[in-house]
Amino acid sequence: MRRIRVLVATLTACVALLSACGYDATPLPKPDEESAASSGSSGSTPVECDNATQSYDASDDKAAAVKQLTNKGRLVVGVSGDTYKMGFTDPTDAELKGFDIEFADAIAKALGVTLDLRVISAAERIPKLESGELDMVARNMTVNCDRWTQVAFSAVYYNATQKVLVGSTEGDTYTGPASLAGKRVCAPAATTSVANIKKIEPDVVAVEAANHTGCLIKFQNGEVDAITGDDTVLAGLAAQDPYTAVPQQDKLTDEPYGLAFNKDDVALVRFANSVLDQMRADGRWTAIYDEWLKPTLTVDATPPAPAYGR
């Protein structure tokens, strides 16, 4: 019966996301490399700053922003293709949709250019911005001081929190990170989630996959005991697999999301911030949240207040 349930759940996840039933296993980093790998920083010592969520002042100078696009007439944006409700391929029409996609679309329209979406992994976010292959990343990316040394961020457009997903039969008995001691917990490579869970509960056996879909398949195959990540992502996983649950729990960390850009594209960042300001003011932010995240998170939310002055 367990085998049947696993097969059904796996097929459900694969159909919903139009992704292959497989994953790229990623070797765990050595202890002195964990911080660098999770943050995207090249050093092993975390970088400190006064306020990582502080971005550049908003500006509606569209001409200056358009000049910084790598390709004339196009905004090339890196997104997720398998994060249900955030950035995923809709099986009904094969279109990329979700919370993050809406923000990418709004900025492209404000710039008056074509939106060119590229599906990338979490590990590809910073390298592809640095190389100029992408103009922007809208892929549930946490703003932190380490990443500011390599890329630039917009003002925070959503405040997520890191939590844990377990089997549905364990939902009522999960009591926090201490429950995970000695257990295998999965998170995508090159995310802050891996370093966070190891810091909070050192006895966790961290297991990495290329993305959260890979973690879900590992969970369904009995290769891991739990999954950790942002509440937005875990809620989407639980919506796909009825044998999982995100139990009531205190947040492990705060995970403020920012749109990411090449470090030198300050004019583009400023313009994106002006678009985000408009979306907060005219109700578009709330409408997007209510459509994509509220049904799975089941809580009301308000847009985060921007912090400027960098």
TrEMBL record:
<comment type="similarity">
    <text>Belongs to the bacterial solute-binding protein 3 family.</text>
</comment>
<feature type="signal peptide">
    <location>
        <begin position="1"/>
        <end position="24"/>
    </location>
</feature>
<feature type="domain" description="Solute-binding protein family 3/N-terminal">
    <location>
        <begin position="74"/>
        <end position="296"/>
    </location>
</feature>
<dbReference type="Pfam" id="PF00497">
    <property type="entry name" value="SBP_bac_3"/>
</dbReference>
<feature type="region of interest" description="Disordered">
    <location>
        <begin position="30"/>
        <end position="53"/>
    </location>
</feature>
<protein>
    <submittedName>
        <fullName>Glutamate ABC transporter substrate-binding protein</fullName>
    </submittedName>
</protein>
<dbReference type="InterPro" id="IPR001638">
    <property type="entry name" value="Solute-binding_3/MltF_N"/>
</dbReference>
<keyword id="KW-0732">Signal</keyword>
<dbReference type="InterPro" id="IPR051455">
    <property type="entry name" value="Bact_solute-bind_prot3"/>
</dbReference>
<dbReference type="InterPro" id="IPR018313">
    <property type="entry name" value="SBP_3_CS"/>
</dbReference>
<keyword id="KW-0813">Transport</keyword>
